[in-house]
Every structure is written in structure tokens, then in C-alpha cells.
Amino acid sequence: MELRNESYPPLDSSILPRAPAQRWHSVSRRSDLRPLSQGRSNRIFLALGIGVVVLLLGVGAVWLVSQVLASNGPAPAIQDTEVAPVTPVAPTTNAPTNAATAEVPAAPEFHVVQPGEVLTAIARKYNTTVEYLAELNNIENVDSIRVGQRLRLVPEEQ
């Protein structure tokens, strides 16, 4: 016995979602599976390549941040005007001194570069400019000084 209810209209199948295309392939003993696997392997290599690039970019960014933090000072300011070199001056004390026994402390002749020091900070410490120290020590790249390097602070006496 068949029950029919004529009060409902027939179902419109155009509004239903379509089933995805079938992705099955029957395999026989003589089938060649290479065409089936090529699409997937290319996607895997692409994903691995993108992963490696992202990893390298992350490592490079971490290295760059560590170098900036290790520089221990602000970047040197770019000056448009030419500045005359300033010679280092020894600090003075305000204590009364006897002119006969007073010894004037001499400005140091050299500075030995310590870890984390940059040429800007060294120039500021001795009240001089980066350009003056670079010229006096024949430094071509002011961003490249080595730990243990002896920097001349005053010109050689001739």
C-alpha cells in the first residue's frame, strides 16, 4: 500500500548541494599510478618549500633583531654640515690645587675596543666625532670595529 500526500509539492533538486566529483580510480595490475600521484606530490613539495622559506625568514629576522640589540647604542646621525674634529679633553676637578705639585692628567692615547662597544659611543666618551676617529685610525667602514682593536685617540707626534 502506497501512501501519498498530495498536499506537498514535489522536491526541487536544483537547490540541493551537488555531490563532489568522484575521485576513485580502479587499479589493475598494469595500471600506471604516476599520473594520479603527480598532482599531490607537487603540492607537498610546494608546501615544504614555503615552510623552509618562512623558517629562514624567521631566523633572519631573529638574527637582525639580536644584532640591533647588541649594538648597544643608537645609529649615528647623518650630518649635512662638515664638523671640525674635536680633540679629547681630560676631565677637570673643582678641588683647589697647588700649582707647584698639581699634575694635569693626560688624555689617553689609545682606546681598546670592548665587547658591545660601537664607534659612536667611543667618540662620545672621549668628546670627539666618529669621522675624526675613523680618519685617525684609517677606518673605512665605521660600523665594523673589532673587539680588542686599539683605536688611536690623539694624532701621532711628529
Broad shape? elongated
Low-confidence parts: none
State which percent range the strand residues make up: under 5%
What's the mean pLDDT score?
75
Kindly, what is the distance between the CA atoms of the first and last residues, rounded to a whole number of angstroms? 125 Å
Number of helices: 3
Characterize the structure shown.
The protein is mostly helical and 158 residues long. It has three helices and two strands, in the order H-E-H-H-E. It has a two-stranded antiparallel ribbon. The model has no long low-confidence stretch (mean pLDDT 75).
Write the topology of this structure.
Elements: H1 34-70, E1 110-112, H2 119-125, H3 130-136, E2 150-152
Task: Write a short abstract of this structure.
The chain is mainly alpha-helical and 158 residues long. The chain has three helices and two strands, in the order H-E-H-H-E. It is 32% helix and 4% strand.
